Amino acid sequence: MRWVGSAMPDLVAEMILEGWKVPRDAWEGLLEGDGADQVFEVYDALRTLMPPLGMVNRWMGKPNDNALFGGQPPMKKLLEPGGLVAIRHLVRGQLNVW
Fold it and tell me: Would the CA dihedral through 83, 77, 60, 15 be positive or negative?
């Protein structure tokens, strides 16, 4: 999804990051470039995979045994360099969307 000439993607992404309890000092790095679009894509894919309201936010904070996360919560990976892209690839792959 591309948002051209609008502050909307940043606002939406900030609401998502707040729900995921991402520390505010990490927001700037996550929202650089097309980061807002990527945050929205991850959230949208997760909402499709886990429809109950609130489940996506809980998923980000719970330990995960997927090899990408190594038993750590996805939030930890999200805060690593390249973590947002890696999570985006993982969840979009679960939807078979590219």
Answer: negative
77 with 86: CB under 8 angstroms?
yes
Q: Can you give the pLDDT at residue 3?
A: 45
Q: Torsion over CA of 45, 46, 49 and 52, rounded to 10 degrees?
A: -130
**Residue 83, H or E segment:** helix 83-95
Domain count, the chain: 1
Tell whether 46 is covered by a domain.
yes
Average pLDDT of every residue of the chain: 86
Range(s) of the domain holding residue 60: 8-95
Contacts of 39 (CB under 8 A, 6+ apart): 13, 16, 17, 30, 31, 84
